[in-house]
Write a structure and sequence with these properties.
This protein has helices spanning about 5-20, 30-35, 40-50, 80-95, 125-135; strands spanning about 70-80, 100-105, 115-120, 145-150. Helix content is about 35%, strand content about 15%. It has a four-stranded antiparallel beta sheet. The chain contains five helices and four strands; from the N terminus they run αααβαββαβ. It has about 160 residues and is α+β, with helices and mostly antiparallel strands. It has two domains: about 5-50; about 70-150, Alpha-Beta Plaits.
Amino acid sequence: MVLKAGGEARDRALIRAIQNGLPLTRRPYARIGLELGMSEAEVIERIRRLQAAGAIKRFGVVVNHRALGFRANGMVVWDIPDDRVDAAARRLADMDCVTLCYRRPRRPPRWNYNLFTMVHGRDERTVRERIERMAREADLEDVPREVLFSRRCFKQRGARYA
């Protein structure tokens, strides 16, 4: 497919159109295209190209886990040796109970953790059980970790650019 001229302006318009979510319709890309003067195929192709170029890093759903009955969520912070962290992150990220997994630099002496994983459950006991299973299955039982449970729920949303 050949993308139409004025590409940067059209890309910006598309990003503005999708940043608050897709329309809840059978053909959301066709609806967006209609609003922007693009075909459904052009909308899809532009999104693919923006993803391939790294302009759109993630394209997904923001789920209100509390509305689904998941009242407990724990951020597990791990102090994994640097030579093990990449492999551990891959194992943890592949687990069904992990909804986020990312690496951050340590900030010693007060913060020695370098890997963060989010686990949701209907209650804290369930979350703790899942974390113990995660540690066993990822061979991380010997790794220092802490679980930080959320006490308040804040609004979740994706990035806004316009």
